[in-house]
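Hi Q.,

Before the meeting this afternoon, I wanted you to have the S-adenosylmethionine prediction in hand. No need to reply - just skim if you have a minute. The sequence and ligand are here:
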Amino acid sequence: MAEVPAGKLVLVATPIGNLGDMSPRAVQVLGDADVVACEDTRRTGRLLAAAGVHAKRLVAVHEHNERGQADALVQRMLTGDVVALVTDAGTPAISDPGERVVVAAAEAGVTIEIVPGPSAVIAALAISGLPTERFCFDGFLPRKGRQRAERITAIAGESRTTVLYEAPHRLAATIAALAEACGEGRRIALARELTKRFEEVWRGTLAQAVVHTTDVEPRGEYVLVVEGAAHVEATEADLDAALRARLDAGTDKRTAIAAVAAELHLPRRQVYQAALRLAPGR
Ligand code: SAM
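Predicted structure with the ligand bound:
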């Protein structure tokens, strides 16, 4: 049997706001590690100081250098070093650097362990008040273009609860796009500043969320938790109503067909035929 290298990689989750959420095992592992790989050495330096940890060595691993750093870190592990990897907040590799280092370590046969802990996706889902039994995480949506439209259409047709991350200045636009694609009655929870002083969970329909995010300027960190699509057999009247609502709102035919097909779980061809019938000239 091939020999397993002596060093290892340990992914360490850190608080998403409240320093009290730093676990005793996280403190222990970060203090013992030969190298602490982190996104921002100054930020992690402050976290470690607050936790009373004296790290032996800090190395920066961020989205711009992860590919190169992954190989260098694996070389260290192969020579016996324990590398602890943290990010600015939460669980590494979840919408954060870490995945490439894990892949490189796995390919080299290095042991990989985790100190689990805070992650905004799980925290928000758990307190959303929406179904938690089956869910999917869609990270950050693309900012614009076709890929963004396709992802939003897929969310509209998804029967599981969907969890998303979003920056505050893009929140209103994302909610408006979700309301258009999913229908205004779909429920959503907006989990804001979790574990921090201004922690808040707002719950309502997408129509209410559009008003809420227009009335109050979104500030701080947000997770969006979107209710899944209801799976009921759509009637021809449902199909016509869903199409008409979108076409009357000015949505172009192609987009309306894609969105309604996803929302009602109908073949595009069937929705296309209905669109021809309802708006032959458009
Ligand atoms: N790896 C992290 C995790 O495990 O949650 C996520 C990192 S991602 C770059 C940062 C995003 O997570 C923020 O833009 C926000 O959407 C969400 N987030 C992080 N902390 C949060 C908090 N305290 N409250 C609400 N959302 C938070």
